Protein backbone atom coordinates (compact mmCIF):
# COMPACT_ATOMS: atom_id res chain seq x y z
CA UNK A 1 0.00 0.00 0.00
CA UNK A 2 1.39 3.39 -1.00
CA UNK A 3 0.26 6.65 0.63
CA UNK A 4 0.87 10.12 -0.82
CA UNK A 5 -0.05 13.35 0.98
CA UNK A 6 -0.96 16.36 -1.14
CA UNK A 7 -1.39 18.76 1.75
CA UNK A 8 -4.37 19.54 3.98
CA UNK A 9 -6.47 16.31 4.09
CA UNK A 10 -5.84 15.19 0.51
CA UNK A 11 -4.36 11.70 0.25
CA UNK A 12 -3.79 9.36 -2.67
CA UNK A 13 -3.84 5.69 -1.67
CA UNK A 14 -2.81 2.82 -3.91
CA UNK A 15 -3.94 -0.70 -2.98
CA UNK A 16 -2.88 -3.30 -5.51
CA UNK A 17 -4.06 -1.98 -8.88
CA UNK A 18 -6.62 0.40 -7.34
CA UNK A 19 -6.09 4.13 -6.81
CA UNK A 20 -8.20 6.07 -4.31
CA UNK A 21 -8.16 9.82 -3.73
CA UNK A 22 -9.47 11.21 -0.43
CA UNK A 23 -10.81 14.76 0.07
CA UNK A 24 -9.46 16.45 -3.09
CA UNK A 25 -8.43 20.02 -2.25
CA UNK A 26 -5.30 21.08 -4.12
CA UNK A 27 -5.59 24.80 -3.41
CA UNK A 28 -3.24 24.51 -0.46
CA UNK A 29 0.37 25.58 0.13
CA UNK A 30 1.79 22.06 0.32
CA UNK A 31 1.31 21.14 -3.35
CA UNK A 32 1.64 22.47 -6.88
CA UNK A 33 -0.04 19.42 -8.41
CA UNK A 34 -2.76 19.97 -10.97
CA UNK A 35 -5.68 17.79 -9.80
CA UNK A 36 -6.12 16.39 -13.28
CA UNK A 37 -2.62 14.89 -13.17
CA UNK A 38 -4.16 12.16 -11.01
CA UNK A 39 -6.56 9.56 -12.37
CA UNK A 40 -8.12 7.80 -9.37
CA UNK A 41 -10.53 4.91 -9.66
CA UNK A 42 -12.44 6.06 -6.57
CA UNK A 43 -12.96 9.45 -4.96
CA UNK A 44 -13.62 9.29 -1.20
CA UNK A 45 -15.15 12.26 0.62
CA UNK A 46 -15.19 12.49 4.42
CA UNK A 47 -17.61 15.44 4.53
CA UNK A 48 -18.91 18.35 2.52
CA UNK A 49 -16.87 21.36 3.65
CA UNK A 50 -15.27 23.31 0.80
CA UNK A 51 -11.72 22.45 1.85
CA UNK A 52 -12.52 18.75 1.36
CA UNK A 53 -14.57 18.74 -1.85
CA UNK A 54 -12.95 21.73 -3.58
CA UNK A 55 -11.74 19.77 -6.61
CA UNK A 56 -14.47 17.15 -6.89
CA UNK A 57 -15.54 18.61 -10.23
CA UNK A 58 -12.14 17.73 -11.74
CA UNK A 59 -12.86 14.00 -11.59
CA UNK A 60 -15.98 13.40 -13.64
CA UNK A 61 -16.26 9.70 -14.41
CA UNK A 62 -14.55 8.62 -11.18
CA UNK A 63 -16.68 6.58 -8.77
CA UNK A 64 -17.63 8.74 -5.81
CA UNK A 65 -17.75 7.16 -2.33
CA UNK A 66 -19.44 9.17 0.43
CA UNK A 67 -22.64 9.35 2.46
CA UNK A 68 -25.79 9.18 0.32
CA UNK A 69 -26.50 12.84 1.14
CA UNK A 70 -23.07 13.96 -0.04
CA UNK A 71 -23.19 11.78 -3.16
CA UNK A 72 -26.57 13.35 -4.00
CA UNK A 73 -25.26 16.87 -3.46
CA UNK A 74 -22.20 16.28 -5.66
CA UNK A 75 -24.32 14.71 -8.39
CA UNK A 76 -26.60 17.77 -8.37
CA UNK A 77 -23.71 20.25 -8.32
CA UNK A 78 -21.08 18.54 -10.45
CA UNK A 79 -22.94 16.02 -12.62
CA UNK A 80 -23.26 12.25 -12.48
CA UNK A 81 -20.09 10.33 -11.63
CA UNK A 82 -21.20 7.05 -13.14
CA UNK A 83 -24.37 5.26 -14.18
CA UNK A 84 -25.61 4.88 -10.61
CA UNK A 85 -24.52 8.31 -9.41
CA UNK A 86 -21.69 7.15 -7.16
CA UNK A 87 -21.49 4.74 -4.26
CA UNK A 88 -23.44 6.00 -1.25
CA UNK A 89 -22.55 4.35 2.05
CA UNK A 90 -22.85 5.11 5.75
CA UNK A 91 -21.17 4.83 9.12
CA UNK A 92 -20.11 1.26 9.94
CA UNK A 93 -20.42 -0.04 6.40
CA UNK A 94 -17.66 -1.63 4.34
CA UNK A 95 -17.63 -1.53 0.54
CA UNK A 96 -15.29 -3.20 -1.91
CA UNK A 97 -13.49 -0.71 -4.15
CA UNK A 98 -11.38 -2.66 -6.61
CA UNK A 99 -8.54 -4.22 -4.60
CA UNK A 100 -9.41 -2.17 -1.51
CA UNK A 101 -11.96 -2.56 1.25
CA UNK A 102 -13.25 0.79 2.53
CA UNK A 103 -14.95 1.08 5.90
CA UNK A 104 -16.68 4.31 6.87
CA UNK A 105 -16.29 5.30 10.52
CA UNK A 106 -17.48 8.15 12.70
CA UNK A 107 -15.89 11.58 12.93
CA UNK A 108 -16.88 14.24 15.46
CA UNK A 109 -17.37 17.35 13.35
CA UNK A 110 -20.04 19.29 11.45
CA UNK A 111 -21.09 18.71 7.85
CA UNK A 112 -23.00 21.65 6.44
CA UNK A 113 -22.36 22.12 2.73
CA UNK A 114 -24.21 25.23 1.59
CA UNK A 115 -25.46 27.17 4.59
CA UNK A 116 -27.56 29.51 2.45
CA UNK A 117 -29.73 26.53 1.51
CA UNK A 118 -29.27 24.53 4.69
CA UNK A 119 -27.80 21.59 2.76
CA UNK A 120 -26.13 18.88 4.80
CA UNK A 121 -23.87 16.02 3.85
CA UNK A 122 -25.22 13.69 6.51
CA UNK A 123 -22.77 12.47 9.13
CA UNK A 124 -19.11 13.49 8.83
CA UNK A 125 -16.85 10.48 8.52
CA UNK A 126 -13.41 8.95 8.38
CA UNK A 127 -12.27 6.03 6.25
CA UNK A 128 -10.36 2.86 7.08
CA UNK A 129 -8.82 1.39 3.93
CA UNK A 130 -7.46 -2.15 3.89
CA UNK A 131 -6.28 -4.74 1.41
CA UNK A 132 -8.38 -7.37 3.18
CA UNK A 133 -11.97 -7.37 4.38
CA UNK A 134 -12.10 -6.52 8.10
CA UNK A 135 -13.21 -9.37 10.35
CA UNK A 136 -12.90 -10.22 14.03
CA UNK A 137 -10.02 -12.54 13.16
CA UNK A 138 -6.80 -10.54 13.28
CA UNK A 139 -4.74 -10.71 10.08
CA UNK A 140 -1.06 -9.91 10.60
CA UNK A 141 -0.47 -9.79 6.84
CA UNK A 142 -3.10 -7.14 6.06
CA UNK A 143 -2.25 -3.48 5.51
CA UNK A 144 -4.65 -0.85 6.80
CA UNK A 145 -4.70 2.96 6.65
CA UNK A 146 -7.04 5.15 8.70
CA UNK A 147 -7.89 8.65 7.43
CA UNK A 148 -9.67 10.28 10.36
CA UNK A 149 -11.27 13.13 8.41
CA UNK A 150 -11.98 16.27 10.41
CA UNK A 151 -12.56 15.22 13.99
CA UNK A 152 -11.96 15.75 17.65
CA UNK A 153 -10.61 13.05 19.93
CA UNK A 154 -13.37 10.45 20.39
CA UNK A 155 -13.66 7.19 22.30
CA UNK A 156 -14.64 5.47 19.04
CA UNK A 157 -10.91 5.43 18.26
CA UNK A 158 -10.12 3.54 21.46
CA UNK A 159 -13.15 1.25 21.57
CA UNK A 160 -13.82 0.38 17.91
CA UNK A 161 -11.38 1.64 15.29
CA UNK A 162 -8.19 0.64 17.08
CA UNK A 163 -9.07 -2.82 18.43
CA UNK A 164 -11.35 -4.05 15.64
CA UNK A 165 -10.10 -2.34 12.47
CA UNK A 166 -6.44 -2.39 13.55
CA UNK A 167 -4.92 0.41 11.44
CA UNK A 168 -1.20 0.13 10.73
CA UNK A 169 -0.94 3.79 9.69
CA UNK A 170 -3.11 6.75 10.70
CA UNK A 171 -3.50 10.28 9.35
CA UNK A 172 -4.87 12.68 11.95
CA UNK A 173 -5.77 16.38 11.88
CA UNK A 174 -3.56 18.49 14.15
CA UNK A 175 -4.57 22.03 13.16
CA UNK A 176 -6.69 22.74 16.25
CA UNK A 177 -9.43 25.42 16.05
CA UNK A 178 -11.65 23.37 13.68
CA UNK A 179 -10.39 19.91 14.71
CA UNK A 180 -8.28 18.44 17.48
CA UNK A 181 -4.80 19.84 17.96
CA UNK A 182 -1.45 18.11 18.55
CA UNK A 183 -2.16 17.08 22.16
CA UNK A 184 -5.49 15.37 21.47
CA UNK A 185 -4.17 13.87 18.22
CA UNK A 186 -1.32 12.29 20.18
CA UNK A 187 -3.79 10.62 22.52
CA UNK A 188 -5.61 9.34 19.44
CA UNK A 189 -2.37 7.77 18.16
CA UNK A 190 -1.96 5.99 21.49
CA UNK A 191 -5.56 4.74 21.50
CA UNK A 192 -5.34 3.52 17.90
CA UNK A 193 -2.14 1.57 18.58
CA UNK A 194 -0.84 2.20 15.07
CA UNK A 195 2.75 1.72 13.89
CA UNK A 196 2.90 4.95 11.88
CA UNK A 197 1.23 8.34 12.38
CA UNK A 198 0.99 11.27 9.98
CA UNK A 199 -0.17 14.80 10.79
CA UNK A 200 -2.58 16.48 8.36
CA UNK A 201 -5.04 19.39 8.17
CA UNK A 202 -2.56 22.06 9.30
CA UNK A 203 -0.79 25.15 7.89
CA UNK A 204 -3.41 25.67 5.17
CA UNK A 205 -5.00 28.77 6.73
CA UNK A 206 -3.83 31.07 9.56
CA UNK A 207 -6.19 29.57 12.21
CA UNK A 208 -4.67 26.11 11.76
CA UNK A 209 -0.97 26.97 11.59
CA UNK A 210 0.98 24.39 13.59
CA UNK A 211 4.51 23.06 13.98
CA UNK A 212 4.11 19.33 13.24
CA UNK A 213 7.11 18.60 15.45
CA UNK A 214 4.89 19.56 18.38
CA UNK A 215 2.70 16.62 17.41
CA UNK A 216 5.71 14.30 17.48
CA UNK A 217 6.65 15.61 20.94
CA UNK A 218 3.11 15.04 22.21
CA UNK A 219 3.16 11.46 20.92
CA UNK A 220 6.38 10.89 22.87
CA UNK A 221 4.81 12.50 25.93
CA UNK A 222 1.94 10.01 26.05
CA UNK A 223 4.43 7.15 26.00
CA UNK A 224 3.40 5.90 22.59
CA UNK A 225 6.01 4.18 20.42
CA UNK A 226 4.35 4.97 17.08
CA UNK A 227 6.68 6.25 14.38
CA UNK A 228 5.57 9.82 13.55
CA UNK A 229 6.32 10.74 9.96
CA UNK A 230 5.97 14.37 8.93
CA UNK A 231 5.57 14.26 5.16
CA UNK A 232 6.28 17.07 2.78
CA UNK A 233 3.50 17.87 0.33
CA UNK A 234 3.48 15.37 -2.57
CA UNK A 235 5.71 12.99 -0.59
CA UNK A 236 4.88 9.27 -0.62
CA UNK A 237 5.15 6.57 2.03
CA UNK A 238 5.34 2.89 1.11
CA UNK A 239 3.54 1.08 3.93
CA UNK A 240 4.40 -2.34 2.50
CA UNK A 241 8.13 -1.59 2.44
CA UNK A 242 8.24 0.16 5.82
CA UNK A 243 6.24 -2.55 7.57
CA UNK A 244 8.71 -5.20 6.47
CA UNK A 245 11.53 -3.72 8.56
Automatic annotation (TrEMBL):
SUPFAM superfamilies: Metallo-hydrolase/oxidoreductase. Keywords: Hydrolase. GO terms for molecular function: hydrolase activity. Residues 7-201 form the Metallo-beta-lactamase domain. The keyword Membrane does not apply. It holds the Pfam family Lactamase_B_3. NCBIfam families: PRK00685.1. HAMAP family: UPF0173 (MF_00457). Belongs to the UPF0173 family. This is UPF0173 metal-dependent hydrolase SAMN05421858_1121.
